[in-house]
Amino acid sequence: MPSTGATTRFSRPRFALLVLLGVYPLITAILYVIFPLTVDWQIWQRTLVIAPLMVAIMIWGLIPGVQKIFREFLNPASR
């Protein structure tokens, strides 16, 4: 069956850029909240708190949001 529309291809570089733009302010905000509460903690202990929080926010919030909002930007028409 012939295709009726232009084919698209997912752009990993564009996706990486958008995720970076979302992760940077997110991790900065988390650090501002967590650091004052964990002044006497070792870095590995802070990371143990921050990493699961960051992963959960990315998996259930940031990444689905980026894919939904920027669908056309992430899937440009193939040449």
UniProtKB/TrEMBL annotation:
Transmembrane among keywords = yes
Q: Where are its TM segments located? A: 15-37, 43-63
Q: Which UniProt keywords apply?
A: Membrane, Transmembrane, Transmembrane helix
What name goes with this protein?
DUF2842 domain-containing protein
